[in-house]
Amino acid sequence: MEKPAGTDYPIHDLLQRRWSPRAFSDRMVEPERLRSLWEAARWAPSSFNEQPWHFILATKQDQTEYTRLLSCLTESNIKWAQHAPVLMISVAKLSFEKDGELNRHAFHDVGLAVANLVLQATAFGLVVHQMAGIYPAKVRELYQIPAQYEPVAGIALGYPGNPETLPESLRQRELAKRTRKPLREFVFTGRWGQPSPLASR
């Protein structure tokens, strides 16, 4: 199922096609494609080239590991994410390698890496749904994550599935029209809240 964005101005096809469905096919994702996704993430920009991103991975080909990672998601996410063939949790390193000081851009940079991953996935015909609904403390305990690292988000990944397989409430959200704020609500000039003239045309 495709659900391209209805944009006000032209954007790249990959950006327009990217969206976050909850319906996944049971088709496994090819290992070489997964490696290309991580390669895309690898080449994201980061503050001082720190590359603070890390990924915990589980696929349905290893049911024990898959079940373990699935247990780190909230119940509302488990309902649909359990059908995705690939699950990941992104993790940020919060300190700089060079001096141990706080890297306040770490989450930003992890987001850039995941954005690269998501766009590469879209190019392959894959879909990705990121989740805030995880249990960070459980992730830390189960995977023995050191103190200077922080679990960021869950990631469900696979080939698109049929929305009809979803529960009714989720199916309605899957089929609903996509919406975004207009540019004038987030591009300002002069003072906070004052829309830039360039964003108001």
CATH fold-level assignment: NADH Oxidase
CATH homologous superfamily assignment: NADH Oxidase
Tell me the structural class: alpha+beta
Q: What is the helix fraction of residues, given as a range? A: 25-40%
The structural domain count equals 1
Question: How far apart are the first and last residues' alpha carbons, in Å?
Answer: 32 Å
- The total count of strands amounts to 4
The appropriate CATH architecture is 3-Layer(aba) Sandwich
Average pLDDT, all residues: 96
Shape: globular
What is the number of helical segments per DSSP (H or I, 4+ residues)?
7
Low-confidence stretches: none
Strand content: 5-15%
Please explain how this structure is put together.
It is a single chain. With 201 residues, the chain is α+β, with helices and mostly antiparallel strands. The chain has one domain (13-161): NADH Oxidase. Helix content is 33%, strand content 15%. It has seven helices and four strands, in the order H-H-E-H-H-E-H-E-H-E-H. A four-stranded antiparallel sheet has the order 1-2-4-3, with helices on both faces. The protein is globular, with a radius of gyration of 18 Å.
